[in-house]
Amino acid sequence: MSIVLKVENLSHRYATAWAIRDINFEISQNGVIGLLGSNGAGKSTTMNIICGVLNQTEGEVYINGINKREDPRLAKKQLGFLPQTPPVYMDFTVNEYLTYAADLRFIEKTKVKQSVAEVMDRTGISHFSSRLIKNLSGGYRQRVGIAQAIIHKPSIVILDEPTTGLDPNQIIEARKLIKEIAQDHTILLSSHVLSEINLLCRDIIMIESGRMVFSDSMDSFNNYIQPATVMMKMENPPVESELLKVEGVTKVQYLTDKQIRVWFSGNNNITQSLITASVQHNWQLVEINLERSILDDVFKQLSQQS
Ligand SMILES: Nc1ncnc2c1ncn2[C@@H]1O[C@H](COP(=O)(O)OP(=O)(O)OP(=O)(O)O)[C@@H](O)[C@H]1O
């Protein structure tokens, strides 16, 4: 399987402080790969270097085997980039802007019209082709941003926090589009939201304080992260002291009068124990879910191990 993106010993220093240190990973097939990290972890720095917006202090980036430092123009031809803020011109129409993007990407003059039409179709914006970008909703502006990133059919597409700032419906639509595009492109997508990466990504690369702390499949990540809390909804919830009597329960938090989160340790069958106790004492349990550790805990756990 050919390697689309290879990042080797990548480090970057702004002025005096290192933003990332010794990042290594390879990506080799279509699908969405998540770059996860808390704010300031180094995601944008890594992506900006991969895309050629920033030159690294140390290390190498290869796109389809082409060293970005040695042949930046050829390397950049093979990738598309959507930075955190879509690089769109508000006073252009969608059609004008994408025609301009096609030109920047050196698409042959005779093929520009067709490329623009195809990419508008692909991203579901054909009906807005003559609309000014400033008159589009955030979700559609993001689609235009994605369209410019794929207009030249790159093998890898880099999306920096693509759903930030969108409303819940727009987020669902954007995720759907990203999944569609991932069928014939490799996508590297950054986020500080674990659930987003979980929903979209096949593999996950996690960085914290500029260091890579995890790189594997989403499945291994989920197996690795042990559940630490249980969320329950009960029609007739007990008082705290009753819940603390259930084997393994260490802490109780009442979120509403019916919704309760409990912390536990040392009981691998915690849900079964809670269900049994609920039946015995008529707590009328209607919902129960194991919750994975919150992201801050995961970062702490992984950073300490690396
Ligand atoms: N231009 C800059 N000059 C100096 N330091 C910078 C610059 N850009 C980023 N940094 C620092 O580098 C570190 C990594 O920042 P980066 O923006 O890559 O993180 P991030 O994971 O993308 O965070 P966010 O999700 O908040 O964008 C942070 O400590 C940040 O303050």
TrEMBL record:
SMART domains documented for this protein: AAA
Classification via PANTHER family: ABC TRANSPORTER, ATP-BINDING PROTEIN (PTHR43335:SF4)
Domain ABC transporter stretches: 5-234
Keywords for the protein's UniProt record, in alphabetical order: ATP-binding, Nucleotide-binding, Transport
Pfam families the record matches: ABC_tran (PF00005)
SUPFAM superfamilies: P-loop containing nucleoside triphosphate hydrolases
Keyword Acyltransferase belongs to the record: no
Species whose genome carries this gene: Pseudobacter ginsenosidimutans
InterPro entries, per the entry: AAA+_ATPase (IPR003593), ABC_transporter-like_ATP-bd (IPR003439), P-loop_NTPase (IPR027417)
Family note: Belongs to the ABC transporter superfamily.
Protein's UniProt name: ABC-2 type transport system ATP-binding protein
UniProt keyword annotation of Transport present: yes
One term of GO molecular function: ATP hydrolysis activity
